[in-house]
């Protein structure tokens, strides 16, 4: 125990001495979380849309009104068809809708009325949603008009009575921020792992490993004592991040705070021991830090469901995603914050993290012991 | 002539030094390629095959047709047919499905009207808005088809410009190209400059008979050569592996890259002059590139971001470069279309470069 405390004290002294590193540990995580959360939480709505209504009839007014009622579109009216194409070219609008001059006439005559829709596809995320919203509005306009006909003719088809009702669970207003902030926590919580990784690589770089190896300290105190301060940093981070999520971004905490803290520690255990393992193989301090950062900080932005859906990816990337601790932590954090989930739902993710942590720490210990000779 | 000779000498020395650090340098050069493959395959194709559950309360021919319709739509893949809606909600809780459809009993007869319900998992915001829009589309399409012989009275003739198949990689890969170029430039510049500070050889250079500008140009020539080589590799992957079209002029793109490199090298020298050691500079650079990329509109269009973030992004050179890359690739934009981005970027390049030279001189003297 005394040996352990001595190693802890030594490590803390080293952390406090390196000011840049201290800054990264404290301010780095918080500022990253806040910046990324603000930026990635962009809800795609109020898409600038140019409407050219060439028809003076009442049907077209109804159609344009339906577009205006959809919060997704931010409408601006234009008089000439050419303006629609122009606005897409110069980027002043992303969607342009042209209602032809014979729109109302066609409907009254029982012919198909065709609106023209131009969508800028260079931002596919926006374009896909724009396409869906337009087709939903066109569909419901069709439905209404068809219902009018059906009523007039007295024909009743069963499907004319079918209604559709959608409900979004856990996040009723579909606010991106509520899903992004818990997701990002896993990414910023890698600070302890990067630190632990750098700490182990440091003495290899400085050549002081032999000095440490010759001290009468046991292996476990040497290994655990070095990691412990970073776990403390991680615990502090969990507290700060939870406060930021609740207060700055109004993310509801529907599950247990205690459970979140415990599972946060499990995550830190998994990432930190992976970081230590990486350090055992790295020759330089920043090499170890960067590889840890890439694996646990960058790869998860693509692969842990924060921004890109894993379900749509090729199988080999789905496997890669499942092998990243952050993927499981994203599920845990979203589960606890938004779904109010408990053990009974989260256990597969928790066991995955525990397995990763156990495997990497055994490997790291074996390698460490070999090096100590 | 003398000047040119001294510049070449310094460049030669730098190349030797980078060669000696081949481990780190090759790591920095391979990383962007790896990231490009991961991001490219991660985004290739649409947001499709979202796992869905259907509760069939009717078990009729009509309900089976609806399940077929949901399954055959590219957007969803029906992975479970739970008996009750409570079981479906449990699947949502566990995150096994992104959407659950509930077909009520009496769907086929529809006496008195029925409601098809869809429950969307709003916690996974990566897919939630797509799942909601798709679900409405699938059910709407199914019911709209239904009016016997009546054709739908309103139809949309939709044309998608610049990226007809809505390939997401066409949006993300150009951004990654910009972000990774900044990583390469910053990291290599840091390796070249910080080392002198670490070893205290900056003072030696100070007393050597060379001018500051010769020193900077000589040091940056290898950075420029490596950056363009990396650019060529990444462009080859972009066009050959991921089939992202480049509709604009490559010569123009090479020129834009030069302006952008100047800005990033300025930032690189600034960081290197301020950081005491490589172990401080490199992690800081990785963090900076990550923050810059998101601010620059890597993930979401800048003009849709919160106003505060938009304001911050004005000072990020990468923002202009990503914007220009996307426009040049997708729309084939030329010099005049890109001028609104190029002018501020060029201004920043000059300011950043001048500031870094000034700081370097102050540190040296």
Summarize, please:
The complex is a heterodimer of chains A (373) and B (365). With 373 residues, chain A is of the alpha/beta class.
Structure description:
The complex is a heterodimer of chains A (373) and B (365). Helices cover 69% and strands 9% of the residues of chain A. Chain A folds into 2 domains: 2-41 and 175-372, no CATH class; 47-161, abc type-2 transporter like fold (3-Layer(aba) Sandwich). Chain A has helices at 2-17, 19-40, 58-69, 81-89, 103-109, 124-153, 176-188, 191-206, 209-213, 219-247, 257-281, 285-303, 315-322, 325-339, 343-372; strands spanning 47-53, 73-78, 95-99, 113-120, 162-169. Chain A has a 4-stranded mixed β-sheet with strand order 2-1-3-4, with helices on both faces. Chain A is an alpha/beta fold and 373 residues long. In chain A, helix 3 links the parallel strand 1 (47-53) and strand 2 (73-78). Chain B is an alpha/beta fold. Chain B has 2 domains: 2-43 and 167-364, no CATH class; 50-144, abc type-2 transporter like domain (abc type-2 transporter like fold). Chain B has 13 helices and 5 strands. The longest helix of chain B has 31 residues, at 169-199. Chain B starts with a helix and ends with a helix. The mean pLDDT of chain B is 86. Classes of the chains: A alpha/beta (373), B alpha/beta (365). At the A-B interface, helix 2, strand 4, helix 6, strand 5 and helix 7 of A face helix 2, helix 4, strand 4, helix 5 and strand 5 of B. Strand 5 (162-169) of chain A pairs parallel with strand 4 of chain B, so a sheet runs across the interface.
């Amino acid at each position: 125990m005394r040996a352990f405390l001595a190693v802890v004290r030594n490590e803390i002294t080293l952390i406090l001495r390196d000011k840049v590193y201290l800054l990264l540990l404290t301010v780095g995580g918080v500022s990253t979380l806040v910046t990324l959360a603000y930026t990635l939480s962009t809800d795609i709505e109020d898409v600038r849309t140019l409407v050219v209504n060439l028809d003076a009839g009442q049907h077209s007014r109804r159609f344009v009104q339906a577009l205006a009622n959809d919060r997704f579109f931010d409408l601006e009216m234009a008089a000439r068809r050419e303006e629609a194409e122009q606005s897409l070219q110069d980027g002043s609008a992303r969607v342009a809708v042209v209602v032809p001059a014979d729109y109302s006439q066609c409907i009254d005559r029982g012919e198909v009325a065709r609106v023209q829709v131009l969508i800028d596809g260079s931002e596919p995320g926006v374009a896909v949603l724009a396409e869906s919203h337009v087709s939903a509005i066109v569909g419901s306009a069709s439905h209404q008009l068809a219902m009018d006909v059906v009523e007039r003719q007295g024909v009743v088809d069963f499907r004319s009575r079918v209604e559709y009702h959608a409900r979004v669970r856990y996040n009723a207003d579909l606010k991106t921020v509520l899903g992004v902030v818990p997701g990002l926590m896993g990414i910023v919580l890698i600070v302890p792992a990067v630190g632990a990784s750098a700490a182990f690589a440091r003495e290899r770089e400085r050549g002081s490993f032999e000095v440490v190896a010759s001290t009468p300290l046991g292996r476990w105190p040497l290994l655990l004592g070095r990691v412990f301060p970073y776990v403390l940093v991680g615990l502090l981070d969990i507290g700060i991040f939870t406060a930021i999520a609740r207060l700055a971004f109004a993310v509801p905490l529907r599950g247990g705070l205690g459970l979140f803290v415990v599972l946060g520690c499990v995550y830190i255990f998994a990432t930190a021991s992976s970081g230590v393992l990486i350090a055992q193989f790295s020759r330089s301090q920043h090499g170890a830090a960067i590889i840890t950062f890439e694996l646990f900080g960058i790869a998860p932005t693509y692969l842990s469901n924060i921004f890109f859906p894993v379900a749509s990816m090729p199988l080999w990337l789905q496997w890669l995603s499942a092998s990243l601790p952050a993927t499981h932590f994203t599920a845990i954090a979203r589960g606890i914050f938004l779904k109010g989930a408990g053990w009974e739902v989260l256990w597969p993710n928790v066991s995955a993290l525990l397995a990763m942590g156990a495997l990497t720490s055994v490997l790291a210990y074996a390698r460490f012991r070999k090096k100590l000779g | 002539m003398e000047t040119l000779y001294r510049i070449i000498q310094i460049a030669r020395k730098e190349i030797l030094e980078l060669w000696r650090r081949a481990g780190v340098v090759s790591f920095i050069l391979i990383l962007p390629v790896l990231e490009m493959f991961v991001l490219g395959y991660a985004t290739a194709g649409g947001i499709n095959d979202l796992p869905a559950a259907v509760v069939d309360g009717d078990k009729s021919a009509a309900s089976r047709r609806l399940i077929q319709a949901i399954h055959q739509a590219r957007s969803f893949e029906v992975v479970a047919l739970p008996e009750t809606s409570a079981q479906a909600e449990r699947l949502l809780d566990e995150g096994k499905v992104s959407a659950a459809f509930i077909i009520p009993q009496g769907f086929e007869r529809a006496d008195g009207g029925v409601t098809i319900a869809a429950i969307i998992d709003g916690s996974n915001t990566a897919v939630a808005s797509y799942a909601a829009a798709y679900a409405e589309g699938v059910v709407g399409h199914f019911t709209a088809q239904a009016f016997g012989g009546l054709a739908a009275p309103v139809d949309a003739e939709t044309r998608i410009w610049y990226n007809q198949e809505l390939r997401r990689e066409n949006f993300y890969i150009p951004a990654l190209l910009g972000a990774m170029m900044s990583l390469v430039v910053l990291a290599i510049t840091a390796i070249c400059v910080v080392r002198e500070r670490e070893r205290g050889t900056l003072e030696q250079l100070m007393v050597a008979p060379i001018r500051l500008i010769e020193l900077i140009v000589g040091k940056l020539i290898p950075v420029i050569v490596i950056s363009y080589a990396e650019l060529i590799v990444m462009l080859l992957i972009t066009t050959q592996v991921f089939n992202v079209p480049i509709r604009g002029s490559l010569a123009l793109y090479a020129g834009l890259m030069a302006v952008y490199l100047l800005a990033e090298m300025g930032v690189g020298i600034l960081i290197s002059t301020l950081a005491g050691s490589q172990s401080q500079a490199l992690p800081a650079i990785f963090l900076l590139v990550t923050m810059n990329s998101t601010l620059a509109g890597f993930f979401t269009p800048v003009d849709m971001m919160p106003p505060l973030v938009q304001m911050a992004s004005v000072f990020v050179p990468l923002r202009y470069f990503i914007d220009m890359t996307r426009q040049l690739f997708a729309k084939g934009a030329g010099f005049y279309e890109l001028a609104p981005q190029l002018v501020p970027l060029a201004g920043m390049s000059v300011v950043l470069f001048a500031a870094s030279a000034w700081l370097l001189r102050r540190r040296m003297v």
